[in-house]
Amino acid sequence: MMIYEILISSILVVFIKLNFQKTLIFFFLMPFP
Questions:
Q1: Please, what is the end-to-end C-alpha distance for the chain in angstroms?
Q2: Under 8 Å CB-to-CB from 23, ≥6 apart: which residues?
């Protein structure tokens, strides 16, 4: 069973939705490989 994976995925989605602007800034400031 992948309960933990589903839980983590849902938490990540909610976190990104709540902090959408900060997430965009974070990815924008991240060094590209």
A1: 34
A2: 16
CA distance 33 to 19: 24
- Tell me if 16 sits within 8 A of 23, measured CB to CB: yes
Q: Which segments of the chain does DSSP mark as H helices, in order?
A: 3-18, 20-29
- Two structure tokens written together for 15: 């976190």
Residue 22: predicted pLDDT: 79
- 17 pLDDT exceeds 80? yes
Higher pLDDT, 6 or 23: 6
